[in-house]
Design goal:
Helix content is about 70%, strand content about 5%. It starts with a helix and ends in a 17-residue tail after the last helix. It is elongated, with a radius of gyration of 20 Å. The longest helix has 25 residues. The protein has a 3-stranded antiparallel β-sheet. By secondary structure, the chain is mostly helical. Strand 2 and strand 3 form a beta hairpin. Helix 8 packs across helix 10.
Length: about 250
């Protein structure tokens, strides 16, 4: 999707802050200088600064300008903040924080999904599972279907806040799935675990669904820790997901 001048400016400044170009406590250049650097009007810069302040990245005030806030103040549930972090490079700390969040949120969401999923919800999750299975057997984009599977589970919980949270979890989920594709036979080994989650949701068995998704999440944690321990480069989400070869 092509962004307008405002969205593009927010992206450029936000990514620069997350990348550390503007340090914590440091002052961002004034509007006229930023406008000249970025080739946009002062109005566009001013609105972008307001957007970044709303995301907790900066604070503005008279005579002090716009200062970068500590990372603890940033809104880590904002999909833009997570996307910028993913683009500049996922850190071990960031991945572990998100993995903890996933372990807290997803099992509870899947319990609700097992209680509330409609036939339409289950059809969407089954379609995503079929896409994963096809990618393993015949090659193709496994990661996108894996994302659809997990987002389908969160939507099936029928809770608007959980649906919004799925956007924040997207970076973790995609990174986790890409890491699993680098492990020997990773997707094929995880497919039965996905099937167990799906079957429990179809049967409307909340406790069984929760246990199955916890097993899946803990497997992903092991994969991530193995990659972090090997010091291999983590995936960058600015690139398309990798494609599997035919199994």
């Amino acid at each position: 999707m092509v962004k307008n001048a405002h969205g593009h400016t927010v992206d450029l400044l936000g990514e620069s802050i997350v990348a550390g170009r503007y340090r914590e406590g440091g002052v961002i250049p004034p509007e006229p200088i930023l406008g000249e650097e970025l080739g946009v009007s002062r109005t566009v810069v001013r609105e972008a600064i307001k957007a970044l302040a709303a995301k907790g990245l900066i604070v503005t005030g008279p005579k002090v300008g716009s200062r970068v806030l500590p990372q603890d103040s940033w809104n880590w549930f904002d999909p833009d903040v997570i996307t910028w972090q993913a683009r500049v490079g996922l850190t071990p700390e960031f991945l572990r924080d998100l993995q903890d969040l996933r372990r807290v949120v997803e099992p509870a969401a899947v319990r609700l999904a097992a209680e509330r999923a409609t036939a339409e919800d289950i059809g969407e999750i089954e379609s995503a599972y079929a896409g994963m299975k096809n990618a393993i057997e015949h090659g193709g984009d496994y990661v996108t279907h894996d994302l659809r599977f997990h987002h389908g589970l969160l939507r099936a919980a029928r809770n608007r806040m959980l649906t919004q949270m799925s956007k924040a979890l997207n970076a973790l989920l995609r990174t986790s799935f890409e890491i699993s594709t680098t492990r020997s036979n990773g997707p094929a080994l995880s497919l039965p675990m996905h099937r167990a989650v799906l079957d429990a949701v179809i049967a409307h068995e909340p406790a069984k669904a929760e246990r199955a998704v916890l097993k899946l999440i803990d497997g992903a944690r092991i994969d991530i820790e193995a990659v972090l321990g090997s010091r291999r480069r983590l995936p960058r989400l600015s690139r398309p997901p990798p494609r599997l070869k035919a199994h």
